[in-house]
Write a structure and sequence with these properties.
The complex is a heterodimer of chains A (85) and B (377).
Chain A (H helix, E strand, L loop, with lengths): L1 E3 L5 H4 L3 E3 L5 H11 L3 H5 L10 E5 L2 E3 L12 E5 L5
Parallel strand pairs in A: 1-5
Antiparallel strand pairs in A: 1-2, 3-4, 3-5
Chain B lengths: L6 E6 L2 E7 L6 E7 L4 E7 L7 E6 L6 E5 L7 E2 L19 E7 L8 E6 L2 E5 L7 E2 L7 H7 L11 E7 L7 E6 L2 E5 L7 E2 L20 E7 L2 E9 L2 E6 L6 E2 L12 E6 L7 E5 L17 E4 L7 E3 L17 E3 L7 E4 L5 E4 L7 E4 L5 E7 L4
Antiparallel strand pairs in B: 1-2, 1-28, 2-3, 4-5, 5-6, 6-7, 8-9, 9-10, 10-11, 12-13, 13-14, 14-15, 16-17, 17-18, 18-19, 20-21, 21-22, 22-23, 24-25, 25-26, 26-27
The chains are: A alpha+beta (85), B mainly beta (377).
């Protein structure tokens, strides 16, 4: 499925859109990390929590759980939260 | 082979810079930015190989990581496994917010590095910083977790473990410090630690025997006399000569209008009686500026009994910057060179042990750390 990558992670993907697979959001991030080593830890901490300023949307709905199931036709948007000054 | 030239490694709130000096320390060339926009907490060149450069990095949005270079920053590679706490089965464990302190291991253990993190954690690498593992019982020990307090108990940008000091005579003998959480010593290679806080003051009203209430800002072991430690603390400047276990306050003789509060402390690499501090305004709400807007280093040549103000060349008024705990260092030359990075993004150097100062760079972001390196081919 197509995944939108925020600019802060383009050093890993070198592209705003990439292809990745997974039956859950967590599995999708694992696949991204296989393709782009190191990317997952920048998004998800060692306790399995999505980091404070990272957001994941599927079909316009924000997803918080790595266990959230994905369908092949889903498009996943990973964005940076608007924060800071 | 040409004579080694010093490189000042500058870590800032918005990237890293390398300031290359000539062998005379007269001319300096600024190289950077590296990692523009990234928060760089520490940048250290391995003195054992003169090649391996580690940078502790994070951003406002992304998790923390480390980068590694073996060609003075021409190319950087992210490490394979940055410091991270052990996962807790129920997800309640801690997560590293940033790596704060990088410490190369002893001379006879090439490739070994230690790291201190925020919140307080101690990590070790045995492969030149590429992969890291939690080190010692400290990170998950119930007693140490209590002494560390919560993340609300730490410094404004997060509680941290710092000042990892390794006894050059015995790599199993280590000191670490935590803000907050006190100074601790291990004599068994980090399998266990014990508090070393006797004689240190704490904020009025709190018990001195509880490590929780201790805030060491910077601890330095003297390379020329490893039984001597100095400490800049939230509550003054101290010296400890082992095997004694009670710290002696040595900052009381600083001028009352200046006080003995500050963050950095530098020891002379060849003379254990000589040290430098950079006092700041720690009164009332803790402005964290130079006292009265007039920055100055202070030097003692007798172990802290008497102090001399060193401000020749520094601004004489309306300079409201200060120097963070990792942002002052010495080189290895004779006379010794000193360097400091300011919260307002200036780098100042002294080629005469602090007697006079020259601005080497300005208009950088807020400087978090400066370290000296001697690259080798």
């Amino acid at each position: 499925m197509r995944v939108l990558i925020p600019s802060a992670l383009h050093d890993y993907t070198h592209a705003p859109w990439v292809e990745a697979q997974g039956e859950t959001l967590g599995a999708l991030l694992d696949d991204l990390d296989r393709q782009f080593p190191g990317l997952r830890f920048r998004m998800v901490d060692e306790q399995g929590h999505i980091r404070r300023h990272m957001r994941c949307f599927i079909g316009g709905v924000q997803i918080f759980a790595l266990s959230h199931p994905l369908a092949t036709a889903d498009e996943v948007l990973i964005v940076q939260a608007l924060s800071g000054g | 082979m040409s004579a080694p030239h010093p490189v000042l490694l500058i870590a800032t709130r918005k990237g890293a810079w390398l300031l290359h000096g000539d062998t005379e320390r007269q001319h300096w060339r600024l190289d950077g930015p590296h990692f523009l926009g990234h928060i760089i907490n520490h940048l250290v060149l391995d003195p054992r190989d003169g090649r391996t450069l580690l940078a502790a990095a994070s951003t406002g949005h992304l998790g923390p990581t480390l980068f590694r270079s073996t060609d003075l920053g021409a190319n950087w590679q992210e490490v394979a496994q940055p410091p991270a706490f052990a996962p807790a089965a129920d997800g309640s464990g801690r997560s590293v917010k940033h790596t704060f302190w990088l410490e190369p291991g002893p001379a006879d253990e090439p490739g070994v590095w230690y790291a201190g993190t925020s919140p307080q954690g101690l990590f070790r690498s045995a492969d030149g910083g590429d992969t890291w593992a939690p080190f010692s019982c400290l990170n998950d020990d119930a007693q140490y977790r209590e002494w560390m307090g919560s993340e609300q108990d730490g410094t404004p940008d997060g509680p941290k473990l710092h000042s990892i000091q390794i006894d050059p005579r015995d790599p199993a003998h280590l000191y670490i410090a935590m803000s907050g959480g006190g100074v601790h010593e291990s004599t068994d290679g980090g399998r266990s630690f014990a508090p070393l806080i006797d004689g240190l003051d704490v904020v009025e009203g709190f018990p001195r025997d509880q490590p929780t209430f201790h805030d060491p800002h910077c601890v330095r072991l003297c390379p020329s006399r490893p039984d001597r430690l100095y400490q800049q603390n939230h509550c003054g400047i101290y010296r400890l000569d082992r095997p004694a276990t009670t710290w002696q306050r040595i900052g009381d003789s600083l001028p009352e209008a200046v006080g003995d509060i500050g963050f950095p402390l530098v020891v002379h690499p060849r003379d254990a009686d000589t040290l430098w501090v950079f006092p700041m305004d720690g009164t009332a709400v803790w402005p964290r500026t130079s006292p009265d807007g007039r920055p100055a280093a202070y030097r003692s040549r007798d172990g802290g009994n008497r102090w001399q103000r060193l401000d020749h060349g520094l601004p004489t008024e309306q300079a409201w910057w200060t120097v963070k705990r990792q942002a002052m260092c010495a080189d290895l030359e004779a006379p010794l060179g000193l360097y400091l990075g300011t919260t307002s993004g200036e780098v100042w150097g002294s080629a005469d042990e602090g007697d006079s100062w020259t601005c080497l760079a300005r208009h950088l972001p807020e400087i978090y750390a400066v370290t000296i390196g001697y690259p080798r081919d």
